[in-house]
Design a protein that fits this description.
With 316 residues, the protein is mostly beta strands. 12% of the residues lie in helices and 42% in strands.
Length: 316
């Protein structure tokens, strides 16, 4: 169905109009490309010579809307612009719709191109390994530009710590001011580390069936991560370790050699002599730990150092 557009025919000339009268016919909708639009972008001319037509076409009507948006004009505004450019509107028949819409041409720019440029710059600058994982956790949104001729360039990355980098990316397009987007990237390095194959409870002795080597991406270097099963087998958990969780050095401890309530051999060093007696451990203790021990004969409590699974020493 054809759309019927109401138009205003304004004949400003005095006297009777004839076929040769100059005519300006304005469209109801015009799509423009530049930052400013002219009468030539929204209207056609008839009954004028080539020189006058060029002058009319060059009359600047205003600033174009942002890409993808519209601006509404009126015939009164066009008449005002004609006067400002030295024309007598009374000498033209101006035919225009009641609503004159001007729309800026828009091309959707995929922001993924910005992210890809930032990642490439980061890899070139920081010299990441081929298997390094780079992720943009908050990618920018797509946006509109006046045309498809776009140049994208990245500046120097700035490290934020913990595997985070900020890369400035500039998007330049003819007819629009440059746009700079700060792309935040997180870098993860792959490492083969020990993880818990099942949940490990506090105080539980760790055996080889409880851990497994697994390749995991980490945001930063962590010297506490363990990579050799021999480092944990035979140790005990100082805290709970969830299934699939990397096993770190602070989470494990040497096992206790002596248990609370155990009878122990007590070696007392006194004035260069060593006296041997018996005692009862009042605490668990690993090798080198100082624990409280009660002397069997005197019931006196001493602080002793764990020497082995049966012996503690006291230096008087």
């Amino acid at each position: 169905m054809r759309r019927v557009i109401p138009v205003l025919v304004v004949t400003l000339a005095t006297g009777v109009w004839c076929a040769q009268q100059p005519r300006i016919e304005v469209r109801d909708l015009s799509v423009v490309k530049s930052a400013q639009f002219t009468l030539g972008d929204v209207a056609t001319f008839s009954g004028v010579d080539t020189q006058t037509q060029a002058r009319l076409a060059g009359v600047v009507l205003g600033t174009s809307p942002l890409p993808g948006l519209e601006r509404i004009m009126t015939i009164e505004q066009i008449v005002t612009r004609l006067r400002q450019h030295g024309f007598r509107p009374e000498g033209f028949e101006i035919v225009a719709p009641a609503k004159i819409a001007v729309r800026r041409e828009a091309h959707l720019f995929r922001a993924q191109q910005v992210v890809e440029t930032a990642v490439q710059k980061l890899r070139e600058t920081v010299l990441l390994g081929d298997d390094a994982q780079v992720v943009c956790e908050t990618p920018p949104r797509d946006f509109s530009l006046p045309n498809s001729s776009v140049q994208v360039s990245a500046g120097e990355p700035r490290g934020l710590g913990a595997g985070l980098y900020l890369v400035p990316v500039q998007v330049m397009c003819e007819g629009a001011p440059p746009v700079t987007l700060n792309v935040r990237l997180r870098v993860s390095q792959w490492r083969e580390v020990l993880v818990a194959r099942r949940a490990i409870h506090t105080g539980e002795a760790i055996n080889s069936d409880m851990v497994i080597l697994q390749r995991i991406a980490f945001n930063s270097e962590d010297p506490e991560l363990l990579t050799d099963p021999a480092e944990v087998v035979g140790k005990v958990a100082r805290r709970p370790i969830a299934v699939g969780q990397p096993v770190k050095r602070p989470a494990i401890d040497e096992p206790a050699l002596i248990r609370r309530g155990q009878n122990v051999k007590l070696l007392v060093q006194l004035d260069g002599a060593v006296i041997e007696t018996s005692g009862v451990a009042l605490q668990d203790g690993k090798a080198g730990a100082r624990i409280r021990v009660q002397v069997t004969d005197t019931r006196k409590t001493l602080l002793a150092t764990v020497a082995d699974a049966e012996t503690v020493t006291v230096d008087m």
